[in-house]
Amino acid sequence: MAAVRIQQKVQQREQHVQREPKKKKKAQRGIRWTFGEKMVFVSFLAFALYSSVTIISNQFTIYHVNKEVQQLQADIQEQQKQNRDLYAQVQELSTYERILAKAKELGLTLNENNVKVVQD
Asked: Phi and psi dihedrals of 62, rounded to 5?
């Protein structure tokens, strides 16, 4: 009898297994995102794109400004060098001996009564 009961239980299980409808497995197409999640993702991508373009644009502007500053500094140094050279030339050409020699060369004479002393 025990064997009959075991056999009946096995048959019931087989019938139960056969009765269950087979569920079709849906092919997973990836992650399903809600509209809100899509909007957050798109907003994040837009913000990231805007931030990168802004940063690159600012760096480009800074590079050009630095380049102009360096060029102006080089121009200033060149002008200062020219000014120093011209100042040295003025000092050399304005010596008393040179002026006196040039005056004698042009036929002028030194009259001590007409000399006025001018101080800076």
From this structure: -60, -40
Q: What is the sign, positive or negative, of the torsion defined by CA atoms of 65, 67, 68, 69?
A: positive
Phi–psi pair at 106, nearest 5 degrees: -85, 0
3-state class (DSSP) for residue 23:
coil
- Taking the C-alpha atoms of residue 32 and residue 98, their distance in angstroms, rounded to an integer, is 97
Please, are residues 72 and 82 in contact by the beta-carbon 8 Å criterion? Answer: no
Residues 6 or more apart whose CB falls under 8 angstroms from that of 103 comprise: 110
pTM above 0.70, yes or no: no
- For tokens 């794109």, the residue is 49
Give the model's confidence band at 67: pLDDT under 50 very low, under 70 low, under 90 confident, else very high.
very high
Provide the pLDDT confidence category of residue 22 given band limits of 50, 70 and 90.
low
Is residue 41 within 8 A of residue 33, CB to CB? The reply is yes
